[in-house]
Amino acid sequence: MPSATSAAPIPVYLLTGFLGSGKTTLLARLVHSREFADTAVVINEFGEVGLDHVLVGQSSEDDIVLLDSGCLCCASNNSLQETLESLYYRRLRGEIPAFSRIVVETSGLAEPAPLINALASDASIARHVRLAGVITTIDAEHGAATLDEYETAATQLAVADLVVLTKTDKVAPEAASAMAGQLRRQAPGAPVLRADRDGLQERTDLFQAADRRTVAPGQFGLERPRAWTRLAHVLRYGIASHVIRADGPVDWARYAAWVDYMQSRLGERLLRVKGILLMEDGAHYAIHGVRHVFSPPRPLDGEVPGDLSGVLVLITRDADEEELALAAAVLDGGA
Asked: Which residues form the CobW C-terminal domain (predicted)?
């Protein structure tokens, strides 16, 4: 049995998506697949993922059900921190089967940033779990209108590490392709997978694609001849994507100054930061941040393509060009 001090933190994936985006349908299929055999899923209500039949004969005091696939489903009304801590120690004591990852389904109306920050800043659970990625579902049929009408949906997309375009069987192939292109423009750096009534169309590792530690070659793939570039597409509510680039290695003091600038100047208006920096020690690091909280930079294994080195994608709300130009200057040591 692993000890509490030696075990590596368990990766946690947030599954988010606006009401009607197909999030629950996707999860209902995944929990019964063998790929989810070593997964614990935290949901608000079992009935939401079509598990009512599993609860027949179950005690109302037992909040965990083990499916035939080996997946654990946990229903909890407690805070996320309390639920994750409980799962961890029950696993450690052998009260429930071992699992190697946790998937948390959020409410369709929930903005994921507070949950992301809770996972990153709560020292009591950070020893045991780590935020691995945010998976956001978008409806191919009504997703464009939803993103335009609801700020929460736009924010859910802004913080995504992986986007799943659902209900692609309900629209023409060219419409699904056009929507996938729109999502790539609005969420630069987030891979887009497609799903229909039968589940994911691509045979891929959903978790590897979403993991914040994994940066696939060409993932950002943007040409940037200047120090910073504002992308053409601007969402309603002032949410927009921007790119800044650091030329050459960045020393740790300059990186700390840049993080301080982003936290103090943009703060709550900084919805997402994702990118790669070459640091003064000669290694490339994955950079992640949500609002005031920045994850510790993680060193990347393997070679990083030159057009990705030094590239940071920022998703902001109501940030002007002067603020973003100054952010680029701080990173380049010119401010």
From this structure: 239-331
